[in-house]
Amino acid sequence: LSLPLRLAATPSRCRSVLLQLATHRMQRRLPAALLVAVGRAMTVGIKPQASLVPQLSTTSVLTFEEVAAIPRPGAQGPSMVKFSPDDRYVTYLGSVEAASLTRQLYVYDRETGSTSLVIAPREGSGEEKSFSKEEALRRERARIMSTGVTEYSWAKNACRLLVPMDGALFVQDGVAEGSADSFRRLFDPDAFPEVGTGPLLDAKLSDDGARCFFVWGGEVCVCEVGSAADECAPRRLTLGARGEEGRTNGLADYCAQEEMSRYSGYWPSPGGGSLVAFEEVDESHIPPFAIMNAGVDSPHEQNEQHRYPFAGAANPKVRLGVVRAGGAADVGEAAAPSEAPTWFDLSGPFGADSYLARVQWDCGGSSLLVQVESRDQRSLALLRCDAATGRVSTVLTEQSDTWVNLHDMLAPLRGGEELVWASERTGWRHLYVHSADGACLRALTSGEWCVEELLSVDEERGHVYFMGNPRAAPDGGPLAAGEYTERHLYRVRCDGSDPSPERLTAQAGLHSGIALSHDHSAFVDSCSSASEPVAAALAALPQPAASSARPAAAEKVLFSARAADARVASLGAVLRPPRFVSFPSSDGAVTLQAAVYEPDEAVFGHGPHPTVVSCYGGPHVQYVQNGWSLATADLRAQFLREQGFLVLKCDNRGSDR
Known about the structure:
Layout: H1 2-7, H2 11-26, H3 32-43, H4 48-51, H5 64-68, E1 79-83, E2 89-95, E3 102-109, E4 115-119, H6 133-141, E5 147-148, E6 153-155, E7 158-165, E8 168-172, E9 184-185, E10 200-205, E11 211-216, E12 219-224, E13 235-236, E14 247-249, H7 254-259, E15 266-268, E16 275-282, E17 289-292, E18 303-306, E19 317-324, E20 342-344, E21 354-361, E22 367-374, E23 379-386, E24 392-399, E25 410-413, E26 418-423, E27 430-435, E28 440-443, E29 451-458, E30 463-468, E31 488-493, E32 502-503, E33 510-516, E34 522-529, E35 532-540, E36 554-560, H8 561-564, H9 567-570, E37 579-584, E38 591-597, H10 601-604, E39 611-614, H11 628-632, H12 635-642, E40 646-650
């Protein structure tokens, strides 16, 4: 019906349209009532609100190119914010221009108050076309769209930076003035074909900065970090996967990357990384699946082959093992390990057909804490794996009638005698303290809200820092409607003596990318709301002696998208915040959150308006947020509103909060 109604706006076409419809009627393809209705619509002036088919405006402020552009206006701020090991410097990735995805590494000196550039990519490096197939797939699964300098890391206990770039690994000793002279490449990848070929993936420094680990040619490798460029000879720590189709060591399997948000497949032990746990993946038994990619120029690249694990079919076979990193004296002519790995049998709780969900070392480095999940995802077990003996024991289990949500909220207390653990045993995800053998000792949080992220444990001052949205404002009063659309920083007592979380962020909206200093005296907060684009600030954390009701005050504004992105001002006429509403689900079981983008009443009248419902529909993802990017900077919704559509963005009951 919409096609003839649109054509009705052109009188010269009315007769031909009616003639075609009449022909279809005579052939009994259309009911007579429809023909009468269309004819009446063509002869009587009908408002867009009545026909529910608005015409596209030719005076639109937004263009299709602007709607499709990434990053969205005012939505991109600093990323990968970190404090240096001595807490003097704040490093982060930022863009040269607000509308660019190309990132560079910057540093803010807390003592001098100055910001400077640390590392910039060479022209043409770090672009999409330069990535190998393996790198492109990892970026796609991790939802990484930035280019240039896309990752970096600090050694935990040494002022040394690691920057993978241009197909090689670079290190720099600190970011103080003059430290750029120490920027160097660890080794020339082309000089060691006997060790590996292809891209260097998932590089990590040991805690002391003396070793660099990475995956190369499907094997876990290591090199000692020397003081001069190209001095560090790499060597393999694992064997059996190089050159074998469908086999890898040290890379997360497809299920882990795509569905479980685990992007690493190996874990060096604390300290000097003397031991390395790794995941062995065998997917050779999974038949290749062809995916036609019509978006590439070469016809020879259009047919992609992937070993895709279909639902109900075979999954990759996964094993977890530990190998010794050894030292420089262990390097032989083949640069290969001389010691077999210690393997762990993880089949105890749920059999061999289960998922390796999470792996981390305990604080002493003698055992691993491993999470395995059943194939139906309704059961999860936390296991302790002894690195010396290979012995596996169960610490605790989680059960659900639907599915167990995976998380990264596990941290040791009291030297590993206790564990901070998140559980949804009450229907809401909260933090608990368990003994080393799994017994639940106390709850740290409670209520009808969810802890979303465990950030840090400060045992010296007795605090656990986390992200969430307890149903209390900074002054202790209730939040307004739409309370689940915000995200804030909180802390709570480790000993459980005060069950009321202390809110540390004051500004309404979505706080993300929080970075805490190692001494827990300051943090960097990136915040936005529907009325304010992204801004990042360094703030001091209130100390325990200060009033617990006073949120942290900004110490230094590091970035403001309103000032940096000219599009925020130029598109100001259409960047109008939506209206947040909530309503009960059809069965009355839950309250749903929604954002409404309403057309201009002066142009399109009171309504009813043609309506577009926008809903992700799957689990976890939350579209309705009091944040700039998903609310106000949603230019597709803004474009449709500008054309007379009402857009209803709604989160189903499976969303995260």
